[in-house]
Every structure is written in C-alpha cells, then in structure tokens.
C-alpha cells in the first residue's frame, strides 16, 4: 500500500532536494517502519520498496550499501510488536523490562554500529 501510493517518489524527491545521503535515507526509512510496525521483515521489504526510486534519482548510488543500510535500519528498537522480542523473552525466561534492557538495547546498538560501518565502507567503495 505504501509503495503503490507513491510515497517512494515523494521521499525520493525530498532526498534529492535535501541532499540527504541515500545510505542514511535507507536506514532511516527502515528504522521508522520498524518502530511503527515492530517487524524487521516488513521494515526491510517496505523500506526497500520506498527507497528504490532514489536509486534512479541520485547518480553513483551503491545499491549493495543501500541493501545493507536497509537491513541495519530494520533491526532498531525491537519491541512488543516483534515476534523475536517474545521469543527471546520466553526462551531466556526474562521479564518484559529485562527484555527491553537487553534485547532491545542490543538490537539498537547493532543497528547504529552497522550504520556507522556502512557509512565508513561507503568512503572506500
């Protein structure tokens, strides 16, 4: 629904106008969708569909790094809408608060560190 609504074109034009780094854009779109839905799968697939128009608008975009950034963004802030959150909670016999302090924190750190490494990688690739 989001992809067919033309949101990707709007975000693409905004990215070109604002001159935002496409890697950062891919990460942000996936991260926002992840927080909104709780699903890394939905964030990855929808984020990719939304960011695709950017590839055609900005010359020299490394598609492989966009894929990595989208995946990294989809990992941020795992919460109660995420099936993985509940699996970790149950298998490790943790409370919801403990799961937030460990799983959610770890996923968020992983997402941000991955973005940093992808941005650094973009300087040499």
TrEMBL record:
Listed Pfam families: GntP_permease (PF02447)
Bilayer topology: Multi-pass membrane protein
Residues making up the signal peptide according to the UniProt record: none
Gene Ontology CC terms, in alphabetical order: plasma membrane
GO MF entry, a single one: gluconate transmembrane transporter activity
Membrane-spanning segments: 12-33, 40-59, 100-124
Subcellular localization, as worded in the UniProt entry: Cell membrane
Taxonomic superkingdom: Bacteria
The entry's keywords: Cell membrane, Membrane, Transmembrane, Transmembrane helix, Transport
UniProt-listed PANTHER family: GNT FAMILY GLUCONATE TRANSPORTER, HIGH-AFFINITY GLUCONATE TRANSPORTER
Membership in a protein family: Belongs to the GntP permease family.
Protein name per the record: Uncharacterized protein
Lineage of producing organism: Bacteria, Pseudomonadati, Pseudomonadota, Gammaproteobacteria, Pseudomonadales
């Amino acid at each position: 629904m989001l992809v067919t609504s033309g949101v990707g074109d709007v975000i693409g034009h905004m990215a070109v106008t604002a001159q935002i780094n496409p890697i950062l854009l891919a990460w942000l779109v996936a991260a926002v969708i992840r927080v909104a839905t709780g699903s890394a799968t939905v964030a990855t697939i929808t984020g990719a569909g939304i960011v695709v128009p950017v590839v055609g608008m900005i010359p020299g975009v490394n598609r492989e790094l966009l894929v990595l950034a989208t995946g990294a963004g989809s990992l941020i802030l795992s919460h109660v809408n995420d099936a993985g959150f509940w699996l970790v909670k149950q298998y490790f016999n943790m409370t919801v608060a403990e799961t937030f302090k460990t799983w959610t924190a770890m996923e968020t750190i992983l997402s941000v560190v991955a973005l940093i490494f992808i941005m650094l990688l973009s300087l040499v690739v």
